[in-house]
Amino acid sequence: STIFAREVLEATIVIGQYRTVLLRSESPEWQDPEEKKRGLRAINHAAIVSALIAFIMILAVAIPLLVVSQQLSKELIQIVEGTSKVVAAICITQLSLKIPRLLGFYPSKKRNGGIA
Prior knowledge:
Layout: H1 2-24, H2 33-69, H3 74-102
């Protein structure tokens, strides 16, 4: 569930960034309010389709794992749970390192003309 929460949070941030870029764009093609609506609709549509695909993939993995895990030994289940917690900790660490940069608390090399 930690990984899922991380991915939802990161997806929300990315979608927000796409919307902000479109709304703040000074490009002539995005000055028309109707084009902006169409662009925002495309962003929302892509986000919804991606979320549905991700949900289907989660179900496709979770259901077989549920069936198979009933036959596993307790030791193997503990190993899987421990590995899952380590992966979740790594994901939380990555997110913790990304959030300050996304919120602009420290400069990004990409924004300053460098290579990140």
